[in-house]
Write a sequence for this structure.
C-alpha cells in the first residue's frame, strides 16, 4: 500500500487510496474509512483504559488491598452486547448495499468479454473483436458489463483505481460492471497467484471519450486496413499471450522459441520429425494438443485459440514467424494479397456503447 501511495502522490483522493475513477469507488472508500476510524477509536479507547487500569490498580508497598468478589451488572453487559451488535449491523448494511450495487449492472450496459490465461488478459468486444494493443478500452461515463472466464487456472481481475476486483474461474462465467468517471490510463493486475509469471500478468485500462472509443472499435474490426500482416503478427505476438511462452531470441521458455522455427524440422512426440510450415503453425494455434514438440510438457499447457483468431490473424502470426526465421527464403512483400477479406472485414459502422440515458451515436465510417 505504501508503494501505491508514493506512486500516486499527485493523484490521491484520500490519504490511504489511489485516485478514484469510478462511480462505486466513493462507496468503497467510505466503508473503508468508516471501519478504519471505528477500529482506531476502539484501539485508542482500549489502550487508554488498559494504561489507566494499570496505573490505578498497581501494587503499592505497605498498602493492604481488600479483595471483594466481582459483581454483576446487567446494564454493563447489555451495553457491550447491544452497541457492538448495532455497529456490526451497520457495517453489514453498508457492505451489502455496496456489493449489490457492484453486482447488478444497469440496463443496456455495454458488454466486454474478459479472458484470463497464463499469463495475459484478452479483452473482446461485441463477442468477436479482441483489443489490438492488449489494453482494456472503455468509454467514459458509460456502464460497462464484464463477463469473465479463464482458459486454465484461477485468475483475478483487479482494477484498484475503480475499486473493483473479481475472480476469473475456469469452467464458469463471473461478471461485474463499472462506470468510469474520468478519462485516463490506469493499472490492471491479477490478484490471484496463478503461476511463476503471475507478477507479469499486467495490463492497462484506457478510459477515453465515446468518439475515441468508436474509432478504436472501428480499428479492431479490421486490422487489414491499417497494418501489414507482419506488423499485425508482431502486435498479436505481444498482446495475445504468445510472448509469455514463446521467445523471439532463441531462449527456451514454456514453449519452443519462434526464432528460426518456421521452416525448421520439428521433432513431434510419437510422430517423428515434420517441417514447421503454415499448416503446422495453423494447426498448433487451433489444436495445440495435436502435435506436441518433443522436450516440452505433455499435455501442452497452451490453450486453443479456436474461435479467438481468424484465418487473417493466424496468417499475420505466420508472417511474423517467417520474418524472424533464417529458414524462410521467400518474399513477405506480396503477403497481404493473400488476406481473406471475408475473415476480418469491418461493417460499414461500428457499434458504440450508449451513454447513460442517451442513444448510441454511430461510429465514424
Amino acid at each position: 500500500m505504501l508503494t501505491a501511495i508514493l506512486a500516486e502522490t499527485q493523484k490521491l483522493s484520500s490519504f490511504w487510496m489511489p485516485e478514484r475513477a469510478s462511480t462505486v469507488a466513493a462507496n468503497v472508500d467510505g466503508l473503508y474509512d468508516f471501519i478504519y476510524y471505528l477500529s482506531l477509536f476502539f484501539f485508542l479507547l482500549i489502550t487508554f483504559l488498559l494504561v489507566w487500569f494499570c496505573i490505578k490498580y498497581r501494587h503499592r508497598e505497605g498498602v493492604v488491598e481488600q479483595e471483594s468478589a466481582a459483581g454483576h451488572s446487567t446494564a454493563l453487559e447489555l451495553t457491550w452486547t447491544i452497541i457492538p451488535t448495532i455497529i456490526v449491523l451497520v457495517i453489514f448494511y453498508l457492505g451489502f448495499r455496496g456489493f449489490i450495487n457492484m453486482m447488478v449492472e444497469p440496463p443496456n450496459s455495454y458488454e466486454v468479454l474478459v479472458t484470463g490465461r497464463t499469463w495475459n488478459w484478452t479483452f473482446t468486444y461485441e463477442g468477436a473483436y479482441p483489443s489490438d494493443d492488449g489494453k482494456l478500452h472503455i468509454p467514459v461515463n458509460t456502464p460497462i458489463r464484464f463477463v469473465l472466464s479463464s482458459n486454465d487456472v484461477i485468475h483475478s481481475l483487479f482494477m484498484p483505481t475503480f475499486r473493483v476486483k473479481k475472480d476469473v474461474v475456469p469452467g464458469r462465467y463471473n461478471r461485474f460492471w463499472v462506470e468510469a468517471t474520468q478519462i485516463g490510463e490506469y493499472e490492471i493486475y491479477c490478484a490471484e497467484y496463478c503461476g511463476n509469471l503471475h507478477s507479469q500478468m499486467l495490463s492497462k485500462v484506457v478510459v477515453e471519450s465515446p468518439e475515441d472509443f468508436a474509432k478504436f472499435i472501428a480499428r479492431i474490426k479490421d486490422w487489414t486496413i491499417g497494418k501489414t500482416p507482419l506488423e499485425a503478427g508482431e502486435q498479436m505476438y505481444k498482446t495475445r499471450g504468445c510472448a509469455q511462452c514463446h521467445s523471439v531470441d532463441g531462449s527456451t521458455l514454456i514453449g519452443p522459441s519462434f526464432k528460426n522455427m518456421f521452416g525448421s524440422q520439428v521433432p513431434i512426440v510419437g510422430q517423428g520429425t515434420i517441417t514447421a510450415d503454415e499448416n503446422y503453425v495453423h494447426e498448433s494455434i487451433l489444436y495445440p494438443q495435436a502435435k506436441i514438440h518433443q522436450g516440452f510438457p505433455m499435455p501442452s499447457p497452451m490453450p486453443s485459440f479456436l474461435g479467438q483468431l481468424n484465418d487473417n490473424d493466424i496468417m499475420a502470426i505466420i508472417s511474423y514467424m517467417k520474418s524472424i526465421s533464417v529458414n524462410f527464403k521467400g518474399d513477405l512483400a506480396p503477403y497481404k494479397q493473400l488476406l481473406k477479406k471475408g475473415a476480418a472485414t469491418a461493417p460499414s459502422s461500428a457499434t458504440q456503447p450508449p451513454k447513460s440515458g442517451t442513444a448510441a451515436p454511430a461510429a465514424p465510417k
In short: Helices lie at 2-7, 25-56, 74-103, 210-221, 229-239, 278-286, 311-323. The two ends are 45 Å apart (CA to CA).
